[in-house]
Protein backbone atom coordinates (compact mmCIF):
# COMPACT_ATOMS: atom_id res chain seq x y z
CA UNK A 1 0.00 0.00 0.00
CA UNK A 2 1.41 3.36 -0.97
CA UNK A 3 0.13 6.87 -1.08
CA UNK A 4 1.44 9.87 -2.93
CA UNK A 5 0.91 13.59 -3.11
CA UNK A 6 -1.15 14.52 -6.18
CA UNK A 7 1.09 17.45 -7.16
CA UNK A 8 4.63 16.21 -6.93
CA UNK A 9 6.62 19.19 -8.16
CA UNK A 10 10.01 20.04 -6.70
CA UNK A 11 8.57 22.76 -4.47
CA UNK A 12 6.36 20.22 -2.75
CA UNK A 13 9.36 18.47 -1.34
CA UNK A 14 10.29 21.58 0.60
CA UNK A 15 6.76 22.72 1.41
CA UNK A 16 5.13 21.83 4.65
CA UNK A 17 2.72 18.92 4.19
CA UNK A 18 0.06 21.18 5.71
CA UNK A 19 0.02 23.57 2.77
CA UNK A 20 0.05 20.87 0.13
CA UNK A 21 -2.98 19.11 1.55
CA UNK A 22 -5.10 22.27 1.33
CA UNK A 23 -4.37 22.65 -2.36
CA UNK A 24 -5.57 19.20 -3.39
CA UNK A 25 -9.23 18.44 -3.67
CA UNK A 26 -10.72 15.67 -1.62
CA UNK A 27 -11.52 13.52 -4.64
CA UNK A 28 -7.90 13.64 -5.72
CA UNK A 29 -6.93 12.64 -2.20
CA UNK A 30 -9.06 9.56 -2.51
CA UNK A 31 -7.54 8.64 -5.82
CA UNK A 32 -4.04 8.68 -4.45
CA UNK A 33 -4.86 7.15 -1.07
CA UNK A 34 -3.92 10.32 0.76
CA UNK A 35 -6.81 10.42 3.16
CA UNK A 36 -5.96 7.06 4.67
CA UNK A 37 -3.22 8.77 6.67
CA UNK A 38 -4.86 11.82 8.26
CA UNK A 39 -1.99 12.67 10.62
CA UNK A 40 0.39 13.25 7.74
CA UNK A 41 -1.76 15.98 6.28
CA UNK A 42 -1.96 18.34 9.19
CA UNK A 43 -0.87 18.84 12.74
CA UNK A 44 -3.26 17.00 15.00
CA UNK A 45 -5.87 19.32 16.50
CA UNK A 46 -6.97 17.82 19.76
CA UNK A 47 -10.56 18.36 20.77
CA UNK A 48 -11.63 16.41 23.79
CA UNK A 49 -15.21 15.91 24.74
CA UNK A 50 -16.94 13.48 27.05
CA UNK A 51 -16.96 10.86 24.28
CA UNK A 52 -13.20 10.82 24.17
CA UNK A 53 -13.25 9.21 27.59
CA UNK A 54 -15.40 6.41 26.20
CA UNK A 55 -13.27 5.94 23.07
CA UNK A 56 -9.64 5.09 23.43
CA UNK A 57 -8.57 8.65 22.67
CA UNK A 58 -5.67 9.86 24.72
CA UNK A 59 -3.74 6.62 24.39
CA UNK A 60 -1.98 7.73 21.21
CA UNK A 61 1.30 8.57 22.88
CA UNK A 62 1.51 5.25 24.67
CA UNK A 63 0.54 3.46 21.47
CA UNK A 64 3.24 5.30 19.62
CA UNK A 65 5.94 4.38 22.10
CA UNK A 66 4.85 0.74 22.06
CA UNK A 67 4.82 0.72 18.28
CA UNK A 68 8.27 2.29 18.07
CA UNK A 69 9.64 -0.11 20.65
CA UNK A 70 8.35 -3.10 18.66
CA UNK A 71 9.84 -1.68 15.47
CA UNK A 72 13.20 -1.32 17.17
CA UNK A 73 12.99 -4.94 18.30
CA UNK A 74 12.26 -6.03 14.73
CA UNK A 75 15.19 -4.04 13.38
CA UNK A 76 17.54 -5.61 15.89
CA UNK A 77 16.28 -9.19 15.93
CA UNK A 78 14.31 -10.15 12.88
CA UNK A 79 16.54 -11.80 10.25
CA UNK A 80 14.36 -10.79 7.34
CA UNK A 81 14.24 -7.13 8.37
CA UNK A 82 18.00 -7.14 8.88
CA UNK A 83 18.34 -8.61 5.39
CA UNK A 84 16.20 -5.82 3.93
CA UNK A 85 18.17 -3.15 5.79
CA UNK A 86 21.39 -4.66 4.47
CA UNK A 87 20.02 -4.85 0.94
CA UNK A 88 18.92 -1.22 1.05
CA UNK A 89 22.26 -0.12 2.47
CA UNK A 90 24.17 -2.00 -0.23
CA UNK A 91 21.95 -0.44 -2.88
CA UNK A 92 23.03 3.01 -1.70
CA UNK A 93 19.95 3.75 0.38
CA UNK A 94 20.75 3.21 4.05
CA UNK A 95 17.73 3.19 6.34
CA UNK A 96 17.72 5.60 9.28
CA UNK A 97 15.14 4.29 11.71
CA UNK A 98 14.00 7.75 12.76
CA UNK A 99 13.97 9.39 9.35
CA UNK A 100 12.50 6.53 7.31
CA UNK A 101 10.01 4.88 9.67
CA UNK A 102 7.03 6.45 11.39
CA UNK A 103 4.29 5.21 13.72
CA UNK A 104 0.96 6.95 13.23
CA UNK A 105 -2.77 6.72 13.72
CA UNK A 106 -4.40 5.85 10.43
CA UNK A 107 -7.73 4.83 8.99
CA UNK A 108 -8.79 1.44 10.32
CA UNK A 109 -8.67 -0.16 6.87
CA UNK A 110 -4.92 -0.02 6.46
CA UNK A 111 -2.07 -1.41 8.51
CA UNK A 112 0.78 0.49 6.94
CA UNK A 113 2.02 2.27 3.87
CA UNK A 114 4.94 3.81 2.06
CA UNK A 115 5.16 7.51 1.27
CA UNK A 116 7.57 8.02 -1.64
CA UNK A 117 7.36 11.81 -1.37
CA UNK A 118 8.67 12.06 2.16
CA UNK A 119 10.31 8.66 1.73
CA UNK A 120 8.91 7.13 4.88
CA UNK A 121 7.38 3.83 5.86
CA UNK A 122 4.22 4.42 7.87
CA UNK A 123 3.17 1.82 10.43
CA UNK A 124 -0.37 2.16 11.76
CA UNK A 125 -0.09 1.99 15.52
CA UNK A 126 -3.86 1.60 15.91
CA UNK A 127 -4.09 -1.47 13.65
CA UNK A 128 -0.96 -3.47 14.30
CA UNK A 129 0.27 -4.38 17.74
CA UNK A 130 1.94 -7.80 17.62
CA UNK A 131 5.59 -8.03 16.65
CA UNK A 132 4.86 -10.63 13.96
CA UNK A 133 2.35 -8.35 12.30
CA UNK A 134 4.65 -5.34 12.47
CA UNK A 135 7.44 -7.44 10.99
CA UNK A 136 5.18 -8.41 8.13
CA UNK A 137 4.12 -4.82 7.41
CA UNK A 138 7.71 -3.55 7.66
CA UNK A 139 8.87 -6.25 5.26
CA UNK A 140 6.13 -5.41 2.77
CA UNK A 141 6.91 -1.71 2.81
CA UNK A 142 10.67 -2.24 2.70
CA UNK A 143 10.21 -4.23 -0.50
CA UNK A 144 8.56 -1.11 -1.95
CA UNK A 145 11.48 0.94 -0.65
CA UNK A 146 13.93 -1.45 -2.28
CA UNK A 147 12.16 -1.16 -5.63
CA UNK A 148 12.04 2.63 -5.26
CA UNK A 149 15.75 2.74 -4.39
CA UNK A 150 16.98 0.59 -7.28
CA UNK A 151 14.54 1.42 -10.06
CA UNK A 152 12.73 4.45 -11.40
CA UNK A 153 9.54 3.41 -9.68
CA UNK A 154 6.76 5.86 -10.46
CA UNK A 155 3.83 5.21 -8.15
CA UNK A 156 1.47 6.98 -10.52
CA UNK A 157 2.25 4.38 -13.18
CA UNK A 158 -0.20 1.54 -12.68
CA UNK A 159 2.18 -1.04 -14.17
CA UNK A 160 4.94 -0.06 -11.77
CA UNK A 161 2.55 -0.15 -8.85
CA UNK A 162 1.21 -3.55 -9.88
CA UNK A 163 4.75 -4.88 -10.20
CA UNK A 164 5.86 -3.77 -6.77
CA UNK A 165 2.65 -5.06 -5.16
CA UNK A 166 3.05 -8.42 -6.90
CA UNK A 167 6.61 -8.66 -5.59
CA UNK A 168 5.57 -7.78 -2.07
CA UNK A 169 2.71 -10.29 -2.06
CA UNK A 170 4.96 -12.91 -3.62
CA UNK A 171 7.83 -12.57 -1.17
CA UNK A 172 6.11 -11.63 2.04
CA UNK A 173 2.62 -13.06 1.94
CA UNK A 174 0.58 -15.90 0.44
CA UNK A 175 1.41 -18.84 2.56
CA UNK A 176 -0.92 -21.73 1.92
CA UNK A 177 -2.99 -20.86 4.95
CA UNK A 178 -3.51 -17.24 3.99
CA UNK A 179 -4.41 -18.32 0.46
CA UNK A 180 -6.94 -20.72 1.97
CA UNK A 181 -8.59 -18.02 4.08
CA UNK A 182 -8.59 -15.65 1.11
CA UNK A 183 -10.42 -18.26 -0.92
CA UNK A 184 -7.78 -18.73 -3.58
CA UNK A 185 -7.22 -22.39 -2.87
CA UNK A 186 -9.52 -25.25 -2.13
CA UNK A 187 -9.02 -29.00 -1.90
CA UNK A 188 -9.50 -29.26 -5.66
CA UNK A 189 -7.36 -26.29 -6.52
CA UNK A 190 -3.94 -26.37 -4.90
CA UNK A 191 -1.64 -26.84 -7.85
CA UNK A 192 0.16 -23.60 -8.60
CA UNK A 193 -2.45 -21.71 -6.63
CA UNK A 194 0.23 -19.52 -5.13
CA UNK A 195 0.19 -17.32 -8.22
CA UNK A 196 -3.56 -16.73 -7.87
CA UNK A 197 -3.10 -15.78 -4.24
CA UNK A 198 -0.41 -13.26 -5.19
CA UNK A 199 -2.62 -11.76 -7.88
CA UNK A 200 -5.60 -11.28 -5.59
CA UNK A 201 -3.47 -9.86 -2.79
CA UNK A 202 -1.86 -7.41 -5.20
CA UNK A 203 -5.30 -6.50 -6.54
CA UNK A 204 -6.68 -5.71 -3.10
CA UNK A 205 -3.58 -3.67 -2.25
CA UNK A 206 -3.95 -1.60 -5.40
CA UNK A 207 -7.69 -1.08 -4.93
CA UNK A 208 -7.18 -0.04 -1.32
CA UNK A 209 -5.01 2.91 -2.24
CA UNK A 210 -5.90 3.88 -5.79
CA UNK A 211 -9.20 4.89 -7.22
CA UNK A 212 -8.97 2.71 -10.33
CA UNK A 213 -11.49 0.26 -11.64
CA UNK A 214 -11.06 -3.42 -10.89
CA UNK A 215 -10.66 -4.24 -14.58
CA UNK A 216 -7.88 -1.66 -15.01
CA UNK A 217 -6.05 -3.05 -12.00
CA UNK A 218 -6.49 -6.66 -13.16
CA UNK A 219 -5.21 -5.75 -16.63
CA UNK A 220 -2.11 -4.13 -15.18
CA UNK A 221 -1.46 -7.12 -12.93
CA UNK A 222 -1.82 -9.59 -15.78
CA UNK A 223 0.47 -7.50 -17.99
CA UNK A 224 3.39 -7.42 -15.59
CA UNK A 225 2.84 -10.71 -13.76
CA UNK A 226 5.30 -13.05 -15.53
CA UNK A 227 8.27 -10.73 -15.05
CA UNK A 228 7.49 -9.51 -11.57
CA UNK A 229 6.49 -12.88 -10.13
CA UNK A 230 9.90 -14.37 -10.84
CA UNK A 231 11.89 -11.37 -9.57
CA UNK A 232 12.77 -12.47 -6.05
CA UNK A 233 15.44 -9.97 -5.04
CA UNK A 234 16.61 -9.24 -2.39
CA UNK A 235 15.13 -12.16 -0.48
CA UNK A 236 15.75 -14.82 -3.07
CA UNK A 237 13.02 -17.22 -2.07
CA UNK A 238 9.32 -17.30 -1.30
CA UNK A 239 9.11 -17.43 2.47
CA UNK A 240 7.25 -20.45 3.77
CA UNK A 241 5.46 -20.01 7.05
CA UNK A 242 6.77 -21.96 10.05
CA UNK A 243 10.08 -22.67 8.45
CA UNK A 244 13.65 -21.46 8.69
CA UNK A 245 13.34 -19.63 5.40
CA UNK A 246 13.90 -16.22 6.94
CA UNK A 247 17.18 -17.26 8.53
CA UNK A 248 18.29 -19.03 5.36
CA UNK A 249 17.48 -15.98 3.27
CA UNK A 250 19.43 -13.80 5.70
CA UNK A 251 22.57 -15.94 5.56
CA UNK A 252 22.27 -16.29 1.79
CA UNK A 253 22.09 -12.51 1.45
CA UNK A 254 25.75 -12.25 2.34
CA UNK A 255 26.69 -14.02 -0.90
CA UNK A 256 24.75 -11.44 -2.89
CA UNK A 257 26.33 -8.44 -1.22
CA UNK A 258 23.46 -7.62 1.14
CA UNK A 259 25.47 -6.97 4.24
CA UNK A 260 24.14 -4.80 7.00
CA UNK A 261 27.33 -4.54 9.04
CA UNK B 1 44.09 -19.50 -9.41
CA UNK B 2 43.73 -23.28 -9.76
CA UNK B 3 45.44 -26.17 -7.98
CA UNK B 4 48.88 -25.51 -6.63
CA UNK B 5 51.72 -27.73 -7.76
CA UNK B 6 52.21 -30.87 -5.75
CA UNK B 7 55.84 -30.07 -4.97
CA UNK B 8 54.85 -27.52 -2.32
CA UNK B 9 52.78 -29.61 0.06
CA UNK B 10 52.40 -26.89 2.71
CA UNK B 11 50.17 -24.74 0.47
CA UNK B 12 46.50 -25.68 0.70
CA UNK B 13 44.75 -26.24 -2.65
CA UNK B 14 42.49 -23.38 -3.71
CA UNK B 15 39.72 -23.18 -6.23
CA UNK B 16 38.51 -20.19 -8.19
CA UNK B 17 35.42 -18.58 -6.61
CA UNK B 18 35.93 -20.63 -3.48
CA UNK B 19 33.96 -18.04 -1.54
CA UNK B 20 30.79 -19.36 -3.15
CA UNK B 21 31.05 -22.64 -1.24
CA UNK B 22 28.82 -22.36 1.79
CA UNK B 23 29.27 -24.17 5.12
CA UNK B 24 28.39 -27.83 4.58
CA UNK B 25 25.44 -28.02 7.01
CA UNK B 26 23.67 -25.41 4.87
CA UNK B 27 23.49 -27.86 1.95
CA UNK B 28 22.27 -30.61 4.23
CA UNK B 29 19.55 -28.34 5.63
CA UNK B 30 18.42 -27.30 2.17
CA UNK B 31 18.26 -30.92 1.02
CA UNK B 32 16.29 -31.98 4.06
CA UNK B 33 13.89 -29.06 3.63
CA UNK B 34 13.51 -29.73 -0.07
CA UNK B 35 12.54 -33.36 0.49
CA UNK B 36 10.38 -32.78 3.57
CA UNK B 37 6.60 -33.14 3.39
CA UNK B 38 6.06 -29.45 4.08
CA UNK B 39 8.67 -28.54 1.50
CA UNK B 40 7.14 -30.80 -1.15
CA UNK B 41 3.70 -29.41 -0.45
CA UNK B 42 5.00 -25.88 -0.81
CA UNK B 43 6.68 -26.77 -4.11
CA UNK B 44 3.43 -28.21 -5.43
CA UNK B 45 1.56 -25.11 -4.22
CA UNK B 46 3.96 -22.71 -5.95
CA UNK B 47 5.25 -24.56 -9.02
CA UNK B 48 2.63 -27.24 -9.60
CA UNK B 49 5.34 -29.90 -9.38
CA UNK B 50 8.05 -31.08 -7.06
CA UNK B 51 11.55 -29.80 -7.63
CA UNK B 52 14.72 -31.77 -8.14
CA UNK B 53 16.50 -31.86 -4.80
CA UNK B 54 19.47 -33.95 -5.94
CA UNK B 55 21.78 -30.95 -6.57
CA UNK B 56 21.62 -30.12 -2.86
CA UNK B 57 22.57 -33.68 -1.93
CA UNK B 58 25.46 -33.67 -4.39
CA UNK B 59 26.65 -30.35 -3.05
CA UNK B 60 26.53 -31.66 0.50
CA UNK B 61 28.56 -34.74 -0.37
CA UNK B 62 31.00 -32.68 -2.41
CA UNK B 63 31.29 -30.15 0.40
CA UNK B 64 32.21 -32.88 2.87
CA UNK B 65 34.87 -34.18 0.50
CA UNK B 66 36.25 -30.66 0.00
CA UNK B 67 36.22 -29.88 3.69
CA UNK B 68 37.76 -33.16 4.82
CA UNK B 69 39.99 -34.21 1.94
CA UNK B 70 40.54 -30.96 0.03
CA UNK B 71 39.15 -32.69 -3.05
CA UNK B 72 39.43 -30.00 -5.70
CA UNK B 73 37.15 -31.72 -8.21
CA UNK B 74 34.31 -31.73 -5.69
CA UNK B 75 34.88 -28.07 -4.92
CA UNK B 76 34.67 -27.18 -8.59
CA UNK B 77 31.37 -29.03 -8.92
CA UNK B 78 29.91 -27.07 -6.02
CA UNK B 79 31.08 -23.80 -7.55
CA UNK B 80 29.41 -24.76 -10.85
CA UNK B 81 26.14 -25.51 -9.07
CA UNK B 82 26.32 -22.27 -7.11
CA UNK B 83 26.93 -20.29 -10.28
CA UNK B 84 23.88 -21.89 -11.85
CA UNK B 85 21.82 -20.97 -8.79
CA UNK B 86 23.03 -17.39 -8.90
CA UNK B 87 22.13 -17.17 -12.58
CA UNK B 88 18.70 -18.60 -11.90
CA UNK B 89 18.10 -16.14 -9.09
CA UNK B 90 19.49 -12.98 -10.68
CA UNK B 91 18.34 -13.39 -14.30
CA UNK B 92 14.67 -12.57 -13.61
CA UNK B 93 15.74 -9.59 -11.53
CA UNK B 94 17.89 -8.03 -14.25
CA UNK B 95 15.43 -9.14 -16.91
CA UNK B 96 12.54 -7.34 -15.26
CA UNK B 97 12.08 -4.48 -17.69
CA UNK B 98 8.78 -3.21 -16.29
CA UNK B 99 10.98 -0.49 -14.89
CA UNK B 100 14.46 0.81 -15.64
CA UNK B 101 17.36 0.78 -13.21
CA UNK B 102 18.40 3.99 -11.58
CA UNK B 103 21.89 5.33 -12.05
CA UNK B 104 22.00 6.74 -8.53
CA UNK B 105 19.79 6.56 -5.44
CA UNK B 106 16.69 8.77 -5.34
CA UNK B 107 17.42 12.44 -4.57
CA UNK B 108 14.77 12.61 -1.87
CA UNK B 109 16.17 9.65 0.08
CA UNK B 110 17.45 11.76 2.94
CA UNK B 111 15.83 15.16 2.43
CA UNK B 112 14.96 16.68 5.82
CA UNK B 113 11.43 16.15 7.03
CA UNK B 114 9.05 19.10 7.48
CA UNK B 115 9.67 21.24 10.59
CA UNK B 116 6.60 20.19 12.57
CA UNK B 117 7.37 16.51 12.07
CA UNK B 118 10.99 16.98 13.10
CA UNK B 119 9.89 18.77 16.24
CA UNK B 120 7.52 15.90 17.10
CA UNK B 121 10.31 13.41 16.65
CA UNK B 122 12.76 15.19 18.96
CA UNK B 123 11.77 13.35 22.12
CA UNK B 124 10.55 10.16 20.47
CA UNK B 125 11.71 6.62 21.25
CA UNK B 126 13.06 5.96 17.76
CA UNK B 127 15.04 9.19 17.84
CA UNK B 128 16.82 8.10 21.00
CA UNK B 129 17.48 4.64 19.56
CA UNK B 130 18.69 6.10 16.26
CA UNK B 131 21.19 8.27 18.14
CA UNK B 132 22.32 5.24 20.14
CA UNK B 133 22.85 3.26 16.93
CA UNK B 134 24.93 6.08 15.47
CA UNK B 135 26.95 6.25 18.67
CA UNK B 136 25.95 9.82 19.51
CA UNK B 137 24.68 8.93 22.97
CA UNK B 138 25.46 6.00 25.26
CA UNK B 139 23.00 3.12 25.59
CA UNK B 140 19.94 4.17 27.53
CA UNK B 141 17.89 2.08 29.91
CA UNK B 142 14.55 1.17 28.34
CA UNK B 143 11.86 1.03 31.06
CA UNK B 144 9.66 -1.23 28.95
CA UNK B 145 8.62 -3.48 31.79
CA UNK B 146 7.38 -0.77 34.06
CA UNK B 147 3.70 -0.19 34.63
CA UNK B 148 2.05 2.76 32.99
CA UNK B 149 -0.45 4.72 35.00
CA UNK B 150 -2.92 6.46 32.74
Automatic annotation (TrEMBL), chain A:
Query: What GO molecular-function term can you cite, just one?
Result: metalloendopeptidase activity
Using the UniProt record, name the top-level EC class of this enzyme in a single word. hydrolase
Q: Where is the composition biased (Polar residues)?
A: 1-11
Keywords linked to the UniProt accession: Hydrolase, Metal-binding, Metalloprotease, Protease
Which EC number(s) are documented for this chain? 3.4.24.-
Give GO terms for biological process. Answer: mitochondrial protein processing; mitochondrial proton-transporting ATP synthase complex assembly
Show the ranges annotated as biased composition (Basic and acidic residues).
15-32
Taxon lineage: Eukaryota, Metazoa, Ecdysozoa, Arthropoda, Hexapoda
Q: What family does this belong to?
A: Belongs to the peptidase M76 family.
State the source organism's domain of life.
Eukaryota
Region of interest called Disordered, as start-end residue ranges on this chain: 1-36
Gene Ontology CC annotation, any one: mitochondrion
**Which Pfam families does this chain map to?**
Peptidase_M76
* Keyword Isomerase attributed: no
Q: What is this protein called?
A: Mitochondrial inner membrane protease ATP23
From TrEMBL, chain B:
Tell me which domain of life the UniProt entry assigns to the organism this sequence originates from: Eukaryota
Q: Name one GO cellular component term.
A: synaptic cleft
Question: Could you tell me where this protein is found in the cell?
Answer: Synaptic cleft
Read off the Pfam families from this record.
PANTS-like
Q: Which positions carry the signal peptide feature in this UniProt record?
A: none
InterPro entries, per database record: Pants/Emi1-like (IPR021475)
Family as reported in the entry's similarity comment = Belongs to the UPF0545 family.
Write down what this protein is called.
Synaptic plasticity regulator PANTS
Amino acid sequence: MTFIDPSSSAEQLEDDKLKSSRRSSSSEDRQWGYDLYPQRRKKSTETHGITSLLDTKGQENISKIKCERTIYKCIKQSPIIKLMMGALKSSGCPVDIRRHISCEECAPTVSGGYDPILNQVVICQNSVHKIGHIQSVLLHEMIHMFDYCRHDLNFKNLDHLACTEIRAANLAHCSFLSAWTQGDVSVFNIKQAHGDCVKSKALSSILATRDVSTTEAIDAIERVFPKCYSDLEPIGRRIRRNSDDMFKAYTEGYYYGYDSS
Amino acid sequence: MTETSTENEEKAPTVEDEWMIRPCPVYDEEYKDCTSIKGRFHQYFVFGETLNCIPWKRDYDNCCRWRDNKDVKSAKEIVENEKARRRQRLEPHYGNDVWTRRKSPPENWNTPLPEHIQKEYEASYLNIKAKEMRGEIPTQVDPSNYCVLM
